[in-house]
Amino acid sequence: MDSTADIDLDARIERVCRHLQASVDEPSLQELADIAGCSPTRLHRLFKQATGVTPKQYATALRADRLREGLQRQDRITDAFHEAGFGSSGRFYENAPRLLGMTPKRWRAGGGGEVIRFAIAQSTLGSVLVASSSTGVVAILLGDDPEALLYSLQQRFRRAELVGADRGYEHLIAQVIGLVEEPARGTTLPLDIRGTAFQQRVWQALQRIPHGQTASYADIAARIGAPRASRAVARACASNPLAVAVPCHRVVRRDGDLSGYAWGVERKRELLRREKMTRR
User: Fold this and answer.
1) How far is it, in rounded angstroms, from Cα 132 to Cα 117?
2) Backbone phi, then psi, for 122, in 5-degree steps?
3) pLDDT tens, residue by residue, 228-268
4) In this structure, is the dihedral angle defined by the CA atoms of residues 146, 152, 157 and 161, taken in order, positive or negative?
5) How do residues 135-176 score in pLDDT, each as one tens digit?
6) Would residue 192 be called left, alpha or beta, if left means φ above 0 and alpha means ψ between -120 and 50 degrees?
């Protein structure tokens, strides 16, 4: 595909993304295909190729984002779910736990009552904090000071009950430490990834970068159908709570400079070195 065709494809996907962002009700695949000027089957393939998700998954992430914003702004849960595009309370309450990771009432309370299990272990890259909900791993934090990592976890889940994990948690810890020591192995960890619709799109795109390779912030912005959003992509990378599992260490500046990394540029450099060594 030549550069002109690439630009045309980016423009088509961006039009579809803008339409999804402006639509309260989920458009049909045919409606989106008409906007893109291609068949529904081709749009489905090209959209996933460019963004890492299907149009339906993209629309679901946007709806979850609208729902979170509405629950923060509206006095009544009913108003929030109508604003997010749910036509009935039954449909809303059926889907809300999957979209929010908990019930709407608990989410509005700031996650009050949610139990987050955690443990801190040591690796060759320093301390590693692993935390999980009943759904999956919600945080993998790297650093030099275990107390600082615990404080960071407390700030992320201010209303949740944090519980130090027991011996049964050791297998999960071992999996995470193994991933840190050998990031090229990939992960089958159950993840509970929480973020805005935009962050979710960025993090999904990061998971598609092959180990041992890098992509620029501009590359990721183009892949999610927002080619002018390089800075927003950088912010999403900086907000990633799942070190290595969501490999933001594989994102660099266009000139190849490592730029920043939430857990230190030296750790980023070492993770990339380990992945490249594995490829040889």
Assistant:
1) 5
2) -110, 145
3) 788 889 989 999 999 999 999 999 988 888 888 999 999 99
4) positive
5) 899 999 999 999 999 999 988 887 788 999 888 888 999 999
6) beta
Q: How far apart are CA 51 and CA 79, in angstroms?
A: 31
- Selecting among 17, 38, 237, 248, the annotated active-site residue is 248
Query: Is 248 an annotated catalytic residue?
Result: yes
Two tokens, residue 256: 């190849």
Sign of the CA dihedral 103, 82, 20, 198? negative
Which tokens in the block code for residue 47? 């959209």
How long a stretch of residues is the chain?
Answer: 280
Q: Which residues contact 91 (CB under 8 A, 6 or more apart)?
A: none
Cα gap 207→196, rounded to integer Å: 17
Query: In whole angstroms, what is the distance from residue 100 CA to residue 114 CA?
Result: 12
Q: What is the 3-state secondary structure (H, E, C) of 26-89?
A: CCCHHHHHHHHCCCHHHHHHHHHHHHCCCHHHHHHHHHHHHHHHHHHHCCCHHHHHHHCCCCCH
